[in-house]
Amino acid sequence: MLRAENLSFQIGGNRLIDDVSLTLLPGEFTMMLGPNGAGKSTLLKLLTGTETPQQGQVWYGNNLLTSIPLATQARQKAVLSQLLSLPFDLRVEEVVMMGRYPYFDLNPTSQDKQIADECLDAVGMFSFKTRGFASLSGGEKQKVHLARVLAQLHRQPDDTSLKYLFLDEPISALDIHYQHQILSLVRKLASQNMIVFVIVHDINLALQYADKVILIDRARIYGIGTAEEVLTEAAIEAVFKMKPWFITHPETGRRVMIC
Ligand SMILES: Nc1ncnc2c1ncn2[C@@H]1O[C@H](COP(=O)(O)OP(=O)(O)OP(=O)(O)O)[C@@H](O)[C@H]1O
């Protein structure tokens, strides 16, 4: 389990996160939504240790995140941030292999190479393996970075430890086919003893995929619960300043939002 207790974070007197507490459970696919500037990326950075809160604590199981050695964290936690560019050009296969750095010293083993290939294949990018990363389209770059974090958390057959996957808008550049392919893939990972925490903007994707929704507004949590509980007409109107309409999907019977 991941537990965040009373997190607050400010920069120059500006409160980016204000007294946020939450619990993330393995097996649950958690999606966080909220308006631009609400604090989603900042909260993800606090949950992953990229930023340190001025107040509050983050626990991974029984350990404070700050007490877990970085080498251990690198094998249990992977983060996909919004920044997709790299400071120098690498081949696609080299970018994915970065996900295996926690597992080898100088040179990747044949097993590392096989895992990297499998992860590239899982996101439909195997045929781009030897291409220069800089030459890829925005969506292709996003898929390669997804392959990198999948490679980082790839399990050995005897590894049953809890893993943590954090994705900040991982499908923002993807076409509709890959949006669903990637969300189906990470939902499956959640069911394999993994905590999966994903930031998205698409309310309908959250209604379709999320086990738990966290709605954040102006640095504070507005609601936590199932999508049905949290993404209500009143909440969407209050947080996004848009009046939503809900219709019923003719085949699945679930709610679909239109504006
Ligand atoms: N280094 C910084 N200095 C000052 N303000 C910052 C800094 N980083 C972020 N902010 C501000 O904090 C607020 C929250 O930013 P954050 O990136 O967490 O929002 P977000 O909910 O992820 O937004 P978006 O949906 O646009 O990605 C924003 O108003 C942002 O401008």
UniProtKB/TrEMBL annotation:
Gene3D superfamilies: P-loop containing nucleotide triphosphate hydrolases (3.40.50.300). CDD domains: ABC_Iron-Siderophores_B12_Hemin. The keyword Transport applies. One of its GO terms (molecular function) is ATP binding. Keywords: ATP-binding, Nucleotide-binding, Translocase, Transport. Residues 2-243 form the ABC transporter domain. It comes from the Bacteria. NCBIfam families: PRK13548.1. This is Heme ABC transporter ATP-binding protein.
